[in-house]
Design goal:
By secondary structure, the protein is of the alpha/beta class. Strand 45, helix 35 and strand 46 form a beta-alpha-beta unit. Helix 25 packs across helix 26. The longest helix has 17 residues.
Length: about 1500
Amino acid sequence: MAAERGGCSLEAVPLPPEVRESLAELELELSEGDITQKGYEKKRAKLLARYIPLIQGVDPSLQTENRVPGSSQATAAVSKQQKSRSTNSRDERFRSDVHTEAVQAALAKYKERKMPMPSKRRSVLVHSSVETYTPPDNHSAPPDVTTGLVEHLHHERPQVASVRGVPRGYSSSILETADGVPVNSRVSSKIQQLLNTLKRPKRPPLKEFFVDDFEELLEVQRPDPNQPKPEGNQMNVLKGEPLGVVTNWPPSLLAALQRWGTTQPKAPCLTALDTTGKAIYTLTYGKLWSRSLKLAYTLLNKLTTKNEPLLKPGDRVALVFPNSDPVMFMVAFYGCLLAEVIPVPIEVPLTRKDAGSQQIGFLLGSCGVTLALTTDACQKGLPKAQTGEVVTFKGWPRLIWFVIDGKHLAKPAKDWHPQVRDASAEIAYIEYKTSKEGSTVGITISHASMLAHCHALTQACGYSEAETLTNVLDFKRDAGLWHGVLTSVMNRMHVISIPYALMKVNPLSWIQKVCSYKARVALVKSRDMHWSLLAQRDQRDVSLSSLRMLIVADGANPWSISSCDAFLNVFQSRGLRPEVICPCASSSEALTVAIRRPPELGGPPPGKAVLSMNCLSFGVIRVDTEEKLSVLTVQDVGQIMPGANVCVVKVDGTPYLCKADEVGEICVNSGATGTAYFGLLGITRNVFEAIPVTAAGVPVSDQPFTRTGLLGFVGPDYLVFVVGKLDGLMTVSGRRHNADDVVATALAVEPMKFVYRGRIAVFSVTVLHDDRIVLVAEQRPDASEEDSFQWMSRVLQVVSLSFLSFQAIDSIHQVGVYCLALVPANTLPKAPLGGIHISETKQRFLEGALHPCNVLMCPHTCVTNLPKPRQKQPDVGPASMIVGNLVAGKRIAQASGRDVTQLEDNDQARKFLYLADVLQWRAQTTPDHPLFLLLNSKGTVASTASCIQLHKRAERVAVALMEKGRLNVGDHVALVYPPGVDLIATFYGCLYAGCIPITVRPPHPQNLATTLPTVKMIVEVSKSACILTTQAIMKLLKSKEAATAVDIKTWPTILDTDDMPKKKLASIFRPTSPDMLAYLDFSVSTTGILAGVKMSHAATSALCRSIKLQCELYPSRQIAICLDPYCGLGFALWCLCSVYSGHQSILVPPLELESNVSLWLSAVSQYKVRVTFCSYSVMEMCTKGLGTQTDVLRMKGVNLSCVRTCMVVAEERPRIALTQSFSKLFKDLGLSARAVSTTFGCRVNVAVCLQPNRLGKLAEQGTAGPDPTTVYVDMRALRHDRVRLVERGSPHSLPLMESGKILPGVKVIIAHTETKGPLGDSHLGEIWVSSPHNATGYYTVYGEEALHADHFTARLSFGDTQTVWARTGYLGFLRRTELTDASGERHDALYVVGSLDETLELRGMRYHPIDIETSVIRAHKSIAECAVFTWTNLLVVVVELEGSEQEALDLVALVTNVVLEEHYLIVGVVVIVDPGVIPINSRGEKQRMHLRDGFLADQLDPIYVAYNM
């Protein structure tokens, strides 16, 4: 049967492969813009014509909907059900059957599309029944797109010990594919799913090549040429019926109260109910009058301060009454009016942190309120200070609280009579209103407006004396106040007030009261109708036949029509007549705008409009019946109020009149509107004094109009239709969407199994210069994680753009939802009468204080205004670059240190070619001169070494190597020692024996599994024939624990040097040439690659001489070193420089700082050290560990004024924030602000820059060279490899500090990474270095010649092609500064920006991870650390959460926002982990590639992983 109706799916039809292929090609053409939508549909229909017969008038794409056999019976059953309106399935308030069908139709399209589910750690789950992880798949992962990794070293990636403790759950064996990418990971399967959900980017037109102005312009949304435009005539001002003249109409509201209070004292005015529905008190008009008089008398005569009356006429007074006490509120309100003071009704503040309470406080402060009236019971319930007084709430002024219960009021004196004046333009009361942004304003209503409004309502509603009205609304404001407190008194009506607490217990209570009191009028919201529908089954005997008017106060909400229809369906059988339902529209500023008249007043029949939602988003009205997918059905809110003039004006800018088929803001001119925002003249003019003008600019009236904040139009029969509110309006990419509509769509997706009805907040946040829609809902506790996630993804798909939908269907709203968050039940901030406090929810979202339990973000589909991806210029060669720079007046970026040959110094060590010779010479000439002094964690000297002691120990080591180790000249020896003198002695012992030493960090005894494989790998890769170590480490290497991490049987010979024979060495080895290998320097780069470089004897001596000259080191000097001695400059300073220069080195092992943080600084102070070296990790430990202890250190006598220079040894961009906070923190201990500077070295040259600050003789002459300079560069230009200097504090500015002064003998040039041509100083390029102390090549297992040539013997492709350079692998730039160095030349500063291997190539631009990470760390106080990397074109952000796990999901949106705002990048995956998971090496550098491997192999044990759709 289904087949006959042509409704079978494409899946069910056996399409030939060639047809499927053609369909796929068509999809591709459409996605790339090679074919129009119309052409696509035509061709598609043609292809499918013979397989699916077309049904007349049905969109071909709609026929692909899955239908089950027997669907006609199913439909019949459904329609029957709809007639009986089964009401327990969904929020009826937001229900429309057409809309629901539309949603279900859209959903049917997404059945096949699987979205990757977030992963959540079990401890975070509040409740869960389903395993949330996807099973591992067996496909190899997609190719790695992180740029330029040195792939042929992938097998040498070790796991490096972390200074902060090793990441939990790391395992050393990761299953890898041939290209080093782990497989069998559920992460890669999820990312594959994620990639499948993303649409291919459109191919940009050819003219969009990158223009060299490095401006990244955000895409401006161009108006769609096909968008609907209004075509009707300009509307005219609509005039309401005139206000009728009533002969005995009182001159003011108080005159009416006086009349009824004296002539009809027994007439009932107000009946209050308790939470069981019993009437607890009926206030008569006589009692209301007498009590109000008492209160007025007391306020004016009995309240004094310092014998002055507390209040004078016109003062403002706060009314603080609970919703369960209308009687006392009414007495207080009229008492204030009689006393001629101005009541300001507000909500009862229950706690100091009530949502919006602070804003109410600001309002009270601005109104100058000093007195608050309340009841005895309410006052007792308020939070108290220790004195017993009511606490001062946050942001509130100090208030005197006065209880107005009978016993506290004084009887008026016999001769005291209040003046009951005629209604004037003076303020009668102030009503508060909370705006979209959360700020609270007070709207002033004058006595005349209040009277006119009562008159208009009486006429419009046909109120008569002694009528009964049931009121469910809040009686303190809006319609509840206007009908239930003011107009009711004018007409001597009897009001039955239903408290909110009673409605929660018994939603039918208002209907029962209508029935028992035979009420003529009921005042409700659509929520109350909906609640009563859910409970109506239990009640059969209620009747609503007495009602002549059921006023629906939120009838202006477009979705109230469904509640009205459903309510009528059920209660028509119980006496409810259809014409009784009277929706009305109102706003705080204009009071009642329109109301449907009851039938006896002869209004036109009710109207209904089915409007196209697509057109509405452009502000155009188009009636739409055929297309059911995206329509909004609205009901009229009746005719405008008597005595009012109404027009509809454009929402933005000048209030031009709208056309007849255009949606605009409704404006009212009448005597019955608010008059101003209290104390806010500017916005008062804008709202209360608007002058609408015609298209020609002619004012339509000389009277000002009040803007209502309601969006709508005037339909047939002059009926007013409202389609939304300005407060709920979200403008996304130039189109307007209403929050209520999005809520309705979300609710229509499925019966409410997962989230609570009425507990959904929709708002927009501004990210990247456009509004983004956020939907927050409360999740039911019984909904499983997986179900909720599926619901979220369906909501997103239905609401979102046709990006995600099939091309033939426009989804419901055609707008992307940026973020959908589910929070645990009862955690959203509540408004006073239920409902959600939207602005507070938004505030919490933006502050990261919402604590969701599920988050789904879709930035890929929403963010359509990113700058175009950069297209690289194809044919710009190195020669063109040079010419271009010369033409632009830019110099070629090259610089050099001082010429070593020209420098005269009394350097005796220069006579010797080899370091071993220098040590022997020092042992002979100055045998007892101290070279080394090692400190332990207590700060005491652990060991020392003079020249002769070091020489003798080295000799003993050499003997042991030859005799015990049986080693030959040129054999490699691994030195596995803790930092100390033993390491230095064994190094020189190897040189004496002619062996090649390799220093290796020993494994961590508590963490062998992670640290031992690195040791093993270095030993193997370096082809070490022997290991020298201590007895303790030797036992460790051969222990059972070690056997679980590595194969201990394959260790080479292990010798311990603890007790060596005191034998004299026969002869010390002398190399045949200075170019022979001296030692190997192994290190793991931040990209996770193990690289060993070869250092010749010549390079070693040149390095020592260069450092000696730069730092002016000589035997009488002391320096303190707090560095690891295993590689790079740390090794050179620790083991080589003292022997060459003869200065004494105070050695402080960084590991000792873990038990005594102040060790290094105390040593510097104790030995009055002028030069000291440390690493960033040491500096960070001191900053964090000693931040609060500077006073204690000062008392212990720590004084750092001796320090001339403190150099940070690093292979990265200088960390300005850390060095500045270090300088600032220890300034109190005498550290000079200019002392801290940085160094730069890398694998190819361990010391390119050192910045000694004003030392020694040169300092006295004032020629030591300038202080390190800081510049600010434009981060956006940097992404295009351009350097543009900007002012400090300008947008997108990035501070960069000079990396130190270039060493003597070192030449530096900036070269293009691809063409290898020289660059100008306005370009970012690779730093190339030429110097006598360059390393001579990589030492790898296979001796990679190509790699060697590329990195160590590079030549420029243009210009100076003769010089041999080494490529550092770091990006940077040179700047000639205004400062002069010692030689009088202008100083060239080198700025290191980051490692080339670590840069992320995204959207055609180059990003440095540290910049993105800095932004992310600033996003929330609980982010301790962050690291980023890419995976298959997706940006992955890993953040460490330093807070409770419930904050984890708050970070997802904040991280996504900040990266979008500051870097124009969309984050693909956000991973939240525990502190200490991001691996950091001994130099304090992040090991991002290890982290990436750990992530892909599922070893991070994340708290939460969010896959941004």
